[in-house]
Write a structure and sequence with these properties.
A hairpin with a 7-residue loop joins strand 1 and strand 2. It contains five helices and four strands, in the order ββαααβααβ. By secondary structure, the chain is mainly alpha-helical.
Length: about 200
């Protein structure tokens, strides 16, 4: 387990930060951006959990996801392979964690009506919060995919996990909207309420 005795170290005052291994990187480095955005996604899920009082199963799932996202962040913060004589392997996101997301998607999606339009983020507070978490997760996925195109040692499983997570958050947002009954549907070209010259 991690033990933190000090909150500030002053080592980042020069605009760099330390990864789990390797040389220090600029705080705007793409790898730092990737795991920083994963942290942001985690925070938005924490915010969504404020609204899960009547849905303890969803809260439990989101709690597990928050822990898994720390694994994703650690994976992204650890470039390169372990040394052959390493005492402990680096923490990596594993396929079984992605498979957990897939099982939840299949389970919850089975009771939802098929979509007939795109959905606008909204409805219940939990649904709107899950949509926010979904969009931040998509951004984390895009940044991680870009990182992988530049640094081949980037975890492919991290990209898969983030991809599935955004899908699950979408499904859960519909569950939180009374299984889709309270979904706010997109109406394309809806200008009926716009006054001329408005």
């Amino acid at each position: 387990m991690v033990k933190l005795n000090r909150i500030y170290t002053k080592t980042g005052d020069d605009g760099t930060t330390g990864l789990v291994r390797g040389p220090r990187r600029a705080k705007f480095d793409l790898r730092v951006e990737a795991y920083g955005t994963v942290d942001e996604a985690n925070a938005t899920i924490g915010l969504a959990r404020v609204h899960t009082g009547s849905m303890p199963k969803i809260d439990m799932i989101l709690g597990r996801i928050q822990n898994d996202l720390f694994d994703v962040g650690s994976d992204l913060a650890t470039p390169g392979a372990d040394a052959p004589d390493a005492e402990y392997p680096s923490l990596r996101i594993r396929p079984v964690q992605t498979e957990f997301l897939e099982k939840q998607i299949d389970h919850f999606n089975a009771d939802l009506e098929p979509l007939k339009s795109f959905i606008l983020p909204g409805g219940t507070p939990l649904s709107a919060s899950l949509h926010l978490a979904r969009t931040v997760t998509r951004r984390a996925e895009r940044i991680t995919a870009e990182l992988a195109s530049l640094e081949s040692d980037t975890s492919a499983e991290a990209i898969r996990y983030l991809n599935r997570l955004s899908d699950l958050l979408f499904v859960l947002s519909r569950v939180a909207n009374n299984n889709g009954a309270k979904d706010v549907l997109w109406v394309p070209g809806n200008y009926g309420d716009v006054k001329k010259g408005g």
